[in-house]
Design brief:
- A 6-stranded mixed β-sheet has the order 1-6-5-4-3-2.
- By secondary structure, the chain is an alpha+beta fold.
- The two termini are 21 Å apart.
- The chain has helices at 13-16, 20-37, 86-101; strands spanning 4-6, 41-49, 52-60, 63-72, 106-117, 120-126.
- The protein has a single domain, classed as Trna Endonuclease, Chain: A, domain 1 (3-Layer(aba) Sandwich), CATH 3.40.1350.10.
C-alpha cells in the first residue's frame, strides 16, 4: 500500500502558498522530510539528470529514487498527482535512464503529491509511479 499522511490543519495559504519558486521549494522540503521519515536518504535537490531537472533524488537501500513533487492548493480537477502529465512522465523516464547509464543498478520514479485545503494538508507518496 502507498504511504500517505495527513498533517492536521494546513498552514495559512499565506505561509505555504506563495510565489511559484517559494511554493515549489516548500513542497520539496515537505516531501524530503516525508522521504526521510519513510527511511530514504535525500541525496539531492533540483538535480539535473539527462538534461532533466529532478525535484529530489533519494536513496532507499541500493535503489536510487527520482522524485517528482507536486503541490496544489486545491484537490479538484484531479489533484496534484494528475499534474504529472505524459510529457513530464517522459522527462522523468529520461532522467532515470541517465542514472542507469551511469551505472546505478536500480532506479525507480516516485511522485509525491501534496494538496493544501482550508481544513488541512494531505501528502500522498506514489512509489514506482512512472514506468516505461
Amino acid at each position: 500500500m502507498l504511504p500517505s499522511a495527513s498533517a492536521g490543519p494546513a498552514p495559512s495559504k499565506g505561509t505555504l502558498m506563495g510565489t511559484g519558486n517559494v511554493r515549489g521549494a516548500r513542497g520539496e522540503s515537505l516531501a524530503a522530510a516525508w522521504l526521510e521519515l519513510a527511511g530514504c536518504a535525500v541525496i539531492g535537490r533540483n538535480v539535473r539528470l539527462g538534461g532533466v531537472e529532478v525535484d529530489l533524488l533519494a536513496r532507499e537501500g541500493e535503489t536510487r529514487v527520482v522524485v517528482e513533487v507536486k503541490l496544489r492548493g486545491r484537490s479538484d480537477y484531479g489533484g496534484a498527482a494528475l499534474a504529472v502529465d505524459h510529457a513530464k512522465r517522459g522527462r522523468l523516464v529520461r532522467a532515470a535512464h541517465a542514472l542507469e547509464q551511469s551505472g546505478v543498478p536500480a532506479v525507480r520514479i516516485d511522485v509525491i503529491a501534496i494538496e493544501t485545503e482550508a481544513d488541512g494538508l494531505t501528502l500522498r507518496h506514489y512509489r514506482n509511479a512512472v514506468t516505461e
